[in-house]
Specification:
The complex is a heterodimer.
Chain A lengths: L9 E2 L2 H9 L5 E5 L2 H10 L3 E4 L4 H7 L8 H10 L4 E6 L3 H10 L3 E5 L20 E5 L2 H9 L4 E4 L9 H18 L3 H11 L3 H10 L5 E4 L6 H9 L5 E3 L1 H4 L4 H13 L4 H8 L26
Parallel strand pairs in A: 2-3, 2-9, 3-4, 4-5, 5-6, 6-7, 7-8
Chain B lengths: L5 E5 L5 H10 L3 E5 L2 H4 L4 E4 L4 H10 L3 H9 L4 E4 L1 H6 E4 L12 E6 L10 E5 L9 E5 L4 E5 L4 E6 L2 E7 L2 E4 L10 H17 L1
The chains are: A alpha/beta, B alpha/beta.
């Protein structure tokens, strides 16, 4: 038909990076530490798994420096499942990110759950073919990450606590700030950008769209089907579940139940059915007793 | 349009919102479908991109798989992108254990055939039946079609692999027109729904 031009396929574009996250919407992304757990997650209906050495609850318990996982372990998980595999790099540790890209992971989480490698700079995520997801506690933080190239945002919550209160706080904060931008006229957007410490162009885009220009998930503290549905009703397009599944009494059952409740987040009968007889939930931590230094959400800027 | 067809988007998981927007732009009344009773009310259905294993599991779990098969078998127009293409294949080359499809197109698909996310790409694609410039093909961990049966028509290829197929009222693409803002493929599908309705009235 037309002349054949531009036939060289282009990889790593913003559209394929952000588009990848669009395909995960409505789904649950589960932390796994072994290929066996990855299979349980896939069988339960997870849309992706996060491969890591220790779930956040254990990172809290063990203390010390938390780093990128062993490549063998990540590759074992990539081999075990056909759904996308994500893995975490430390904030600002772009060499860990380079390693993860070379292993062929589908998404890199530049994560506050690991010990930050740089207290000023996050990684330049535009430099990668592999897309990045980053955490945020408010809109300004989300937009700074997007400016650095993040193709997906998750509200941070407080990982490894089994307590949804911080996830709710951060998601509400982001949604409220977006709603506020919607009400701004053009004159006000410049000052809003300054206040948010975010690029004006992104602030304007959010004001026009009424949403982030990338997919927004929720993370950090989801432990039950009702928690997952709560985050969806509050506006999250999907959820990350970390310690909540494999630190519970019956991971396979709980994983499947959280998937169901995430899809039918607005149907209390289905959430009720999904919540029956799940066995022990993970033991939670009350966030107001958590020392400042142990709050992961404060990492990243 | 007073007589706009009602087209559902299977909303178990995936990029549902983008399809709803594209269908509305192509002058259809678009609505999400999660339950059998919602499926019964639509003139046509889009199965979106997402994770095919997840969508398949949820469809079985919530009782939409069987009604969906029955309606596709009875000729309801249906369009699948990426994971949706996998759902419309009569056969998957490398299914996960227990992964079921709706079927409807006599083809064998290979999941994630173009590779993992690092190999995801954009390329111009000439699609038979779409006039004008090539379609911007956004391929994300995309499947391709290994082979088609006699009843299925190949609409597009990329790099020697089949990436768009039509059989009767069923349409499937490996790529994601819903992510591009170009609604011509959705318009083609809306025309298929109109044509189907015309034969029934």
């Amino acid at each position: 038909m037309s002349t054949i031009e531009n036939q060289t396929p282009e990889t790593g574009t913003a559209r394929v990076k952000r588009g990848m996250a669009e395909q995960l919407k409505g789904g649950v992304i589960m932390d796994v530490v072994t290929p066996e757990q990855a299979k349980i997650a896939e069988d339960a209906g997870a849309v992706a798994v996060m491969a890591l050495e220790r779930v956040p609850a254990d990172i809290r318990k063990d203390g010390g420096v938390a780093r990128m996982s062993d490549p063998d372990m990540i590759e074992g998980i990539i081999e075990a499942v056909s759904i996308p595999v994500m893995a975490k790099s430390r904030i600002g540790h772009f060499v860990e990110a380079q390693v993860l890209q070379s292993l062929g992971v589908d998404y890199i989480d530049e994560s506050e759950v690991l010990t930050p490698a740089d207290e000023v700079n996050h990684s330049d995520k535009w430099a990668f073919t592999t897309p990045f997801v980053c955490g945020a506690t408010n809109l300004g933080e989300a937009l700074r990450r997007i400016a650095e190239g993040a193709a997906m945002i998750r509200s941070k919550g407080e990982a490894g606590t089994g307590n949804v209160v911080e996830a709710v706080r951060h998601l509400r904060q982001i949604k409220a700030e977006i709603a506020k931008l919607r009400g701004c006229d053009n004159n006000e957007l410049y000052a809003a950008a300054k206040e948010l410490r975010a690029p004006y162009e992104l602030v304007r885009e959010v004001a026009e769209l009424g949403k982030l220009p990338v997919v927004l998930f929720s993370a950090g503290g989801v432990a039950t089907p009702a928690d997952a549905a709560l985050m969806r009703q509050l506006g999250a397009e999907g959820v990350f579940v970390g310690s909540g599944i494999f630190k519970s009494g019956d991971p396979a059952k709980r994983a499947a139940a959280i998937v169901k409740a995430t899809t039918f987040y607005d149907d209390p009968k289905i959430i009720a059915d999904a919540s029956r007889n799940l066995g022990e939930a993970m033991v939670g931590i009350n966030c107001d007793t958590l020392p400042e230094a142990e709050r992961y959400a404060n990492r990243g800027w | 349009m007073t007589d706009a067809p009602v087209i559902g988007v299977l909303a178990l998981q995936g990029d549902v919102r983008e399809h709803l927007i594209a269908l509305a732009a192509a002058d259809a009344v678009a609505r999400p479908v999660r339950r059998p009773e919602e499926l019964a009310e639509v003139d046509g259905l889009v199965i979106p991109g997402g994770e095919s294993t997840t969508i398949s599991k949820l469809a079985v779990l919530f009782g939409v798989m069987e009604p969906l098969r029955a309606r596709v078998h009875a000729g309801m127009p249906v369009y699948g992108t990426c994971a949706g293409m996998i759902m419309l294949a009569d056969k998957i080359l490398d299914p996960r254990s227990g992964q079921e499809t709706v079927g409807g197109i006599d083809m064998i698909v290979r999941r994630n055939a173009f590779g993992r996310q690092n190999e995801s790409f954009e390329a111009a694609v000439d699609v038979r039946g779409i006039d004008g410039d090539p379609v911007e093909g956004v391929f994300i961990r995309a499947p391709w079609v290994e082979s088609v049966g006699a009843g299925a028509e190949v609409l597009a290829e990329h790099d020697g692999h089949i990436v768009a197929v039509r059989q009767g009222n069923a349409l499937a693409t490996s790529f994601h027109p819903e992510l591009t803002g170009d609604h011509r493929v959705h318009s083609l599908f809306v025309d298929m729904v109109h044509a189907k309705r015309a034969t029934e009235s």
